[in-house]
Amino acid sequence: MSMRTSTDSVGDAVQDRQRARTARGVGGRAAPSAARPTPPRRRRPAVALLGVLLIVGGAALAGLLALRMDSRDPVLVVATDVPAGTEITRDMLRETNVATESDLIVPSGALSSVLGTYSRVPLVEGQLLDTTMLVRTNPLSGGQRAEVGVPLVEGRVPDDLDSGDLVRVVRIGEGETPSQPLALALVIRPPVSSGGGGVLGGGNDAKGSAATLLVPLEVADAIVDAAGNNRIGMSLVDRGVAVTDSDRLRSLASAR
């Protein structure tokens, strides 16, 4: 009996010590942690595939641009300013390499096909030659028009006249003789410096200028006479007129 009591006392003492140790956090089963480890993130196949496609697409685009740069073709370009109605010659053109898909630009291999044509409009140095700028018919063909050189006297003509300008040509009156309209004419050669005080054939050393006009044939003599007698005046009607717009050129000599 005394042995059982002793055993129970020993067991109770052991349990008391275990409870005390547990209360102090010593021994026993550890309390579960409040924060659990984060599982590794899963890779998204769609995002990865999109990245690969972007990389491949960028490389393909860069390659295409490089190929495009290498596919430039030799074409004809205007080497100097060319007035409207001028016959195209070899020295007026040069070659350059450009990337273009236009069927109007003239390749350098087609040089022979444009020699002997005429500029439909004024051409500017550095401009790519375009088939719409050229005509095969001489502006003087048909005997209906003539080229006339006229002096440009300050105060009687507009400033900055240029090739492609449509002008109204007038014979300036004198005394009791009124002014007489002569023609609607096209400036085909822009003004160039000339000696003679603004009048062709003048006698002093002052510098003037002269231009070449495309005029109806029936008034060519009257315009030459007015120019020779220093009676020419002009007014600007329009700019950028092509030599093929011949219906805009007409005689005004009958008007009073």
From TrEMBL:
The name this protein goes by in its record: SAF domain-containing protein
Key words of the record: Membrane, Transmembrane, Transmembrane helix
Transmembrane segments: 46-67
Residue ranges of every copy of the SAF domain listed in the record: 73-135
Family matches, as Pfam families: SAF
Matching InterPro entries: SAF (IPR013974)
Chain intervals for the UniProt region annotation (Disordered): 1-42
